[in-house]
Structures are given as C-alpha cells and as structure tokens.
Design goal:
The chain is 17% helix and 38% strand. By secondary structure, it is of the alpha+beta class. The longest helix has 15 residues.
C-alpha cells in the first residue's frame, strides 16, 4: 500500500462546527503542483461527528475524506484548528 497525503485549509470555525477544505492525494496533481483543495469536511463540535459536505476533485468515492477524519480530529481538538495543514502517511 502506498502512502497517502492531502492538504487541509480551514474554511470556517464556530463554537458549533469546523469546516476544512481538503484535497485528494496531492501526488495526483502534477508532482504536487497546483493542488486543488475543493472538498469540504465538517466536524460538529458537540459530538465530534465528521461529515463530508463535498468530495474533492479526484476523490471519486469519498475515501480520501474518510481517511482524513482521524487526522482532522487531532488537528481540531489537539492542535486548535490551524489555518493550513499538510497530512502525509507512507
């Protein structure tokens, strides 16, 4: 299994929810150039529930979004929602 990666960009943060834009595996974007972070993942703060609002370009089955959920949990609840984060596993 190859590693996966993705870019996360904070779109909205309120007391009730956090929304991040995300990219599909950025290796699909011409050697990490011109990454499109047009997917949206929402986290409801009260129950720590994640929901994909819009799948990103090339994330045809929503698998990339679901792969990001546990990473987003850490970013939201442990790192206090940074504006931008690159996630890579390998």
């Amino acid at each position: 299994m190859r590693g996966m990666n993705g870019l996360l960009i904070l779109k909205e943060k309120t007391d009730k929810k956090v929304i991040y834009n995300y990219s599909c595996d950025s290796s699909l974007f011409d050697g990490f150039k011109n990454i499109i972070a047009d997917g949206e993942i929402e986290c409801l703060i009260s129950d720590e529930e994640f929901k994909t609002l819009k799948t990103a370009t090339y994330d045809t089955d929503g698998g990339q979004a679901k792969w990001l959920y546990p990473h987003l949990w850490r970013i939201i609840f442990k790192e206090n929602c940074p504006k931008k984060r690159f996630i890579a596993t390998g």
